[in-house]
Design a protein that fits this description.
By secondary structure, the protein is an alpha/beta fold. Helix content is about 50%, strand content about 20%. Bound molecules: ligand C2E and magnesium ion (3 copies). It comes from Baekduia soli.
């Protein structure tokens, strides 16, 4: 009897594994098709200069609206795109769209300071020898000044610390773009790579921002301060990620963190929605100007 039961369980287990594998294969095929058809959309999240709360720029974030499953979050589809290689084409589309959008917003909402457009690059894109030509092409075709473009690379990718990565990053840097370490502080790595790579910006990962207002975490403030001070002493800019409440923004500003982004200021938004917000605020008649729109 026990044997029969065991076998039944085994069959059940196999069936659910098979369903999972099929599901993943189907999603992967759908993703390939969506990339081929240029169906991956993008949202933009404002990046805010914390001192004065003015608009410093945007981060572009990929969005996949699956025809039957609805919105698939990036942490689900980006790894699939990395596995099947479609991240290279997807990343190129996001990059070109973001550069063209940045030029239109620079013209429509002029400011004295140069605003940044920040684009996430996956490790897989960095391994692709075509990446330097892709970035150069996106800049040339859009007319975006190179120093307005920030390329974000996660700390875990930088930790791999290979000669090829250094060469690739140096070639990108030579185009005049700026390089950011995304999710800084989550990799528990040695900090050696900060000296090896031509980095300009540290993006403080959300857990450190959360720790700022966590009463149960007395060391939270010290860790955030250490990251801000590290950035300053290496002459890097610091952008805090995932600011959800005003007290975090205030604490970061007090620590000397230059920029931040998060739901407290604005969520990632479709370009039309963001434009409406910026436009209404600019007209400043029926709409109270958000503090961050300088
Ligand atoms: P990331 O680059 O660290 O982007 C920040 C993520 O935090 C975004 O999630 C954003 O929506 C979210 N976020 C922003 N403010 C807040 C906040 O106040 N609270 C909370 N809880 N979350 C906040 P999203 O859009 O789901 O993207 C997740 C990750 O997927 C990104 O993390 C990035 O690593 C990756 N990703 C997104 N778009 C692309 C892309 O075009 N290319 C590549 N290679 N990766 C991408
Ligand atoms: Mg990012
Ligand atoms: Mg991040
Ligand atoms: Mg991330």
């Amino acid at each position: 009897r026990a044997k029969a039961q065991g076998k039944g369980r085994h069959v059940l287990f196999e069936a659910s594994m098979e369903a999972e594998v099929l599901d993943r294969l189907e999603l992967e095929a759908d993703l390939l098709r969506a990339v081929e058809r240029h169906e991956i959309a993008v949202h933009y999240q404002p990046v805010i200069a914390l001192d004065g709360e003015t608009l410093a720029g945007f981060e572009v974030l990929a969005r996949w609206n699956h025809p039957t499953r609805g919105l698939v979050p990036p942490p689900h589809f980006i790894p699939l795109a990395e596995d099947n290689g479609s991240i290279v084409a997807l990343g190129r589309q996001v990059l070109r769209t973001a550069c063209a959008q940045a030029v239109r917003w620079i013209d429509a909402f002029p400011s004295e300071e140069r605003r940044i457009m920040s684009v996430n690059l996956s490790g897989r894109q960095l391994e692709d020898p075509g990446i330097v030509a892709d970035v150069a092409g996106a800049l040339a075709d859009s007319g975006l000044p190179a120093d307005a473009l920030v390329l974000e690379i996660t700390e875990t990718v930088l930790m791999q610390d290979t000669e090829a990565t250094i060469e690739r990053l140096s070639a990108l840097k030579a185009l005049g773009v700026r390089l950011a370490v995304d999710d800084f502080g989550t990799g528990y790595s040695s900090l050696r790579y900060l000296r090896r790579f031509p980095i300009d910006i540290l993006k403080m990962a959300k857990p450190f921002v959360d720790g700022l207002v966590d009463a149960d975490d007395p060391d939270g403030r010290a860790l955030a301060r250490a990251i801000v001070d590290l950035a300053a002493s290496l002459n890097l800019s610091c952008i805090a990620e995932g600011i959800e409440v005003g007290a975090q923004a205030e604490a970061l500003r007090a620590l000397g963190c230059g920029m931040g982004q998060g739901f407290h200021f604005a969520r990632p938004m479709a370009p039309g929605d963001l434009e409406a917000l910026l436009g209404d605020a600019g007209a400043a008649r029926t709409f109270r100007t958000p503090a961050w729109l300088g």
